[in-house]
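Researcher: I need the complex structure. Ligand is guanosine-5'-diphosphate. Inputs:
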Amino acid sequence: MREYRSSDIRNVAVVGHGASGKTTLVDALAFVSGSSKRHGSIRDGTTLTDYSPDEIERGYSINLGCAHAEWMDTKINLIDTPGYLDFIGDALAGIAAADGALVVVGATAGVEVGTEKTFQEAVSRQDPVLFVISMLDKENASFDGVYQDIRIRLTSKVVPVEIPIGEGAQFRGIGKFFSKKAHT
Ligand SMILES: Nc1nc2c(ncn2[C@@H]2O[C@H](COP(=O)(O)OP(=O)(O)O)[C@@H](O)[C@H]2O)c(=O)[nH]1
Ligand SMILES: [Mg+2]
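Model: Output:
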Protein backbone atom coordinates (compact mmCIF):
# COMPACT_ATOMS: atom_id res chain seq x y z
CA MET A 1 0.00 0.00 0.00
CA ARG A 2 1.26 3.49 -0.82
CA GLU A 3 1.86 6.12 1.84
CA TYR A 4 -0.78 8.79 2.34
CA ARG A 5 -0.49 12.31 3.70
CA SER A 6 -2.91 12.89 6.56
CA SER A 7 -4.87 15.32 4.32
CA ASP A 8 -5.57 12.37 1.98
CA ILE A 9 -7.03 10.14 4.67
CA ARG A 10 -10.71 10.05 5.70
CA ASN A 11 -11.99 8.15 8.70
CA VAL A 12 -15.59 7.07 8.34
CA ALA A 13 -17.62 5.32 11.06
CA VAL A 14 -20.06 2.81 9.60
CA VAL A 15 -22.96 2.75 12.04
CA GLY A 16 -26.60 1.68 12.33
CA HIS A 17 -28.78 -0.96 13.96
CA GLY A 18 -27.62 -4.59 14.27
CA ALA A 19 -28.03 -6.69 11.11
CA SER A 20 -28.56 -3.65 8.88
CA GLY A 21 -25.66 -4.77 6.65
CA LYS A 22 -22.71 -2.68 7.93
CA THR A 23 -20.07 -5.42 7.96
CA THR A 24 -21.20 -6.68 4.55
CA LEU A 25 -21.01 -3.15 3.12
CA VAL A 26 -17.51 -2.51 4.53
CA ASP A 27 -16.28 -5.75 3.01
CA ALA A 28 -17.85 -4.92 -0.35
CA LEU A 29 -16.36 -1.38 -0.39
CA ALA A 30 -12.87 -2.72 0.35
CA PHE A 31 -13.28 -5.36 -2.36
CA VAL A 32 -14.74 -3.10 -5.07
CA SER A 33 -12.01 -0.49 -4.48
CA GLY A 34 -9.38 -3.21 -4.96
CA SER A 35 -7.96 -2.77 -1.44
CA SER A 36 -9.07 -6.30 -0.55
CA LYS A 37 -8.56 -9.18 -2.96
CA ARG A 38 -11.39 -11.28 -1.54
CA HIS A 39 -15.14 -10.66 -1.23
CA GLY A 40 -15.98 -12.06 2.21
CA SER A 41 -19.37 -13.00 3.61
CA ILE A 42 -21.06 -13.23 7.01
CA ARG A 43 -22.36 -16.73 6.21
CA ASP A 44 -18.88 -18.09 5.58
CA GLY A 45 -17.32 -16.07 8.43
CA THR A 46 -14.84 -14.47 6.03
CA THR A 47 -15.50 -10.71 6.31
CA LEU A 48 -12.58 -8.37 7.00
CA THR A 49 -14.04 -6.84 10.16
CA ASP A 50 -15.91 -9.70 11.92
CA TYR A 51 -12.79 -11.75 12.54
CA SER A 52 -12.93 -12.80 16.21
CA PRO A 53 -14.17 -16.35 16.92
CA ASP A 54 -17.10 -14.89 18.93
CA GLU A 55 -18.17 -12.65 16.03
CA ILE A 56 -17.90 -15.46 13.47
CA GLU A 57 -19.89 -17.84 15.65
CA ARG A 58 -22.65 -15.30 16.43
CA GLY A 59 -22.66 -13.76 12.95
CA TYR A 60 -22.62 -10.15 14.18
CA SER A 61 -20.05 -7.55 15.22
CA ILE A 62 -19.04 -7.13 18.86
CA ASN A 63 -15.91 -4.97 18.57
CA LEU A 64 -14.73 -2.14 16.37
CA GLY A 65 -13.11 -3.38 13.19
CA CYS A 66 -11.18 -1.39 10.63
CA ALA A 67 -10.84 -1.96 6.89
CA HIS A 68 -9.90 0.53 4.20
CA ALA A 69 -10.74 1.45 0.63
CA GLU A 70 -8.28 3.34 -1.57
CA TRP A 71 -10.29 5.50 -3.93
CA MET A 72 -9.24 8.43 -6.16
CA ASP A 73 -5.94 9.10 -4.30
CA THR A 74 -7.71 9.02 -0.94
CA LYS A 75 -7.45 6.36 1.73
CA ILE A 76 -10.83 5.85 3.34
CA ASN A 77 -10.60 4.08 6.68
CA LEU A 78 -13.88 2.30 7.32
CA ILE A 79 -14.55 1.79 11.01
CA ASP A 80 -17.11 -1.00 11.31
CA THR A 81 -19.09 -0.78 14.54
CA PRO A 82 -21.42 -3.12 16.44
CA GLY A 83 -25.12 -2.24 16.08
CA TYR A 84 -26.71 -3.99 19.03
CA LEU A 85 -27.24 -1.73 22.03
CA ASP A 86 -25.29 -4.03 24.40
CA PHE A 87 -22.18 -2.93 22.52
CA ILE A 88 -23.13 0.71 21.85
CA GLY A 89 -20.01 1.97 23.68
CA ASP A 90 -17.80 0.75 20.85
CA ALA A 91 -20.08 2.37 18.24
CA LEU A 92 -19.88 5.71 20.08
CA ALA A 93 -16.07 5.38 20.28
CA GLY A 94 -15.98 4.70 16.52
CA ILE A 95 -17.98 7.87 15.82
CA ALA A 96 -15.66 9.87 18.10
CA ALA A 97 -12.62 8.68 16.12
CA ALA A 98 -14.16 9.44 12.72
CA ASP A 99 -14.59 12.52 10.50
CA GLY A 100 -18.09 11.49 9.48
CA ALA A 101 -20.69 8.77 9.79
CA LEU A 102 -22.15 6.42 7.22
CA VAL A 103 -25.49 5.27 8.63
CA VAL A 104 -26.74 1.99 7.17
CA VAL A 105 -30.52 1.43 7.19
CA GLY A 106 -32.15 -1.79 5.99
CA ALA A 107 -34.75 -1.36 3.25
CA THR A 108 -37.22 -3.65 5.00
CA ALA A 109 -36.48 -2.75 8.65
CA GLY A 110 -36.29 1.05 8.28
CA VAL A 111 -35.14 3.30 11.13
CA GLU A 112 -34.51 1.29 14.33
CA VAL A 113 -33.28 2.21 17.80
CA GLY A 114 -29.60 1.63 16.86
CA THR A 115 -30.10 3.93 13.85
CA GLU A 116 -31.52 6.67 16.07
CA LYS A 117 -28.80 6.46 18.74
CA THR A 118 -25.88 6.51 16.33
CA PHE A 119 -27.40 9.22 14.10
CA GLN A 120 -28.00 11.45 17.13
CA GLU A 121 -24.42 10.92 18.33
CA ALA A 122 -23.00 11.89 14.93
CA VAL A 123 -25.22 14.98 14.74
CA SER A 124 -24.30 16.06 18.28
CA ARG A 125 -20.64 15.95 17.16
CA GLN A 126 -21.53 18.00 14.07
CA ASP A 127 -20.28 15.21 11.83
CA PRO A 128 -21.54 14.91 8.26
CA VAL A 129 -23.85 11.91 7.77
CA LEU A 130 -24.40 9.79 4.68
CA PHE A 131 -27.23 7.23 4.72
CA VAL A 132 -26.91 3.99 2.80
CA ILE A 133 -30.06 1.94 2.30
CA SER A 134 -29.13 -1.74 2.24
CA MET A 135 -31.08 -4.94 1.49
CA LEU A 136 -32.86 -3.46 -1.54
CA ASP A 137 -32.96 -6.94 -3.08
CA LYS A 138 -35.11 -8.31 -0.23
CA GLU A 139 -38.83 -8.98 -0.46
CA ASN A 140 -40.88 -5.94 0.66
CA ALA A 141 -37.90 -3.58 0.30
CA SER A 142 -39.03 0.03 0.04
CA PHE A 143 -36.56 2.83 -0.69
CA ASP A 144 -39.27 5.46 -0.48
CA GLY A 145 -40.63 3.99 2.77
CA VAL A 146 -37.19 4.24 4.41
CA TYR A 147 -36.60 7.72 2.98
CA GLN A 148 -39.87 8.92 4.54
CA ASP A 149 -38.99 7.11 7.80
CA ILE A 150 -35.67 9.00 7.93
CA ARG A 151 -37.42 12.30 7.19
CA ILE A 152 -40.05 11.80 9.88
CA ARG A 153 -37.96 10.17 12.61
CA LEU A 154 -34.43 11.53 12.10
CA THR A 155 -34.13 14.66 9.99
CA SER A 156 -35.93 16.60 7.28
CA LYS A 157 -32.51 17.72 5.98
CA VAL A 158 -31.88 14.70 3.77
CA VAL A 159 -31.66 14.49 -0.03
CA PRO A 160 -31.38 11.36 -2.16
CA VAL A 161 -28.23 11.25 -4.31
CA GLU A 162 -28.75 7.73 -5.63
CA ILE A 163 -31.97 5.80 -6.14
CA PRO A 164 -32.55 2.09 -6.76
CA ILE A 165 -33.64 0.71 -10.11
CA GLY A 166 -36.34 -1.74 -9.05
CA GLU A 167 -36.85 -3.21 -5.58
CA GLY A 168 -37.07 -6.71 -4.10
CA ALA A 169 -36.83 -9.41 -6.78
CA GLN A 170 -36.84 -6.64 -9.43
CA PHE A 171 -33.79 -4.84 -7.96
CA ARG A 172 -31.35 -4.26 -10.82
CA GLY A 173 -28.98 -1.44 -9.86
CA ILE A 174 -28.78 2.23 -8.95
CA GLY A 175 -29.26 5.58 -10.66
CA LYS A 176 -26.95 8.46 -9.65
CA PHE A 177 -28.31 12.01 -9.64
CA PHE A 178 -24.90 13.77 -9.71
CA SER A 179 -23.40 11.93 -12.67
CA LYS A 180 -26.82 11.18 -14.27
CA LYS A 181 -25.63 7.62 -14.81
CA ALA A 182 -27.22 4.27 -14.09
CA HIS A 183 -25.27 1.23 -12.91
CA THR A 184 -26.91 -2.14 -13.32
N1 LIG B 1 -30.35 -9.94 0.95
C1 LIG B 1 -29.41 -9.17 1.47
N2 LIG B 1 -28.79 -9.57 2.61
C2 LIG B 1 -27.82 -8.77 3.11
C3 LIG B 1 -27.46 -7.53 2.52
N3 LIG B 1 -26.49 -6.96 3.29
C4 LIG B 1 -26.27 -7.81 4.30
N4 LIG B 1 -27.06 -8.91 4.22
C5 LIG B 1 -27.15 -10.05 5.17
O1 LIG B 1 -27.74 -9.55 6.37
C6 LIG B 1 -27.12 -10.14 7.52
C7 LIG B 1 -26.56 -9.04 8.44
O2 LIG B 1 -25.48 -8.41 7.74
P1 LIG B 1 -24.24 -7.77 8.52
O3 LIG B 1 -23.33 -7.23 7.47
O4 LIG B 1 -23.69 -8.73 9.52
O5 LIG B 1 -24.98 -6.58 9.29
P2 LIG B 1 -24.40 -5.69 10.52
O6 LIG B 1 -24.86 -6.36 11.77
O7 LIG B 1 -25.05 -4.36 10.32
O8 LIG B 1 -22.91 -5.64 10.38
C8 LIG B 1 -26.07 -11.11 6.98
O9 LIG B 1 -26.64 -12.39 6.94
C9 LIG B 1 -25.79 -10.59 5.59
O10 LIG B 1 -25.36 -11.62 4.72
C10 LIG B 1 -28.16 -7.12 1.32
O11 LIG B 1 -27.93 -6.04 0.74
N5 LIG B 1 -29.10 -7.99 0.85
MG1 LIG C 1 -21.48 -6.05 11.76
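Model: Summary of the prediction. The radius of gyration is 16 Å.
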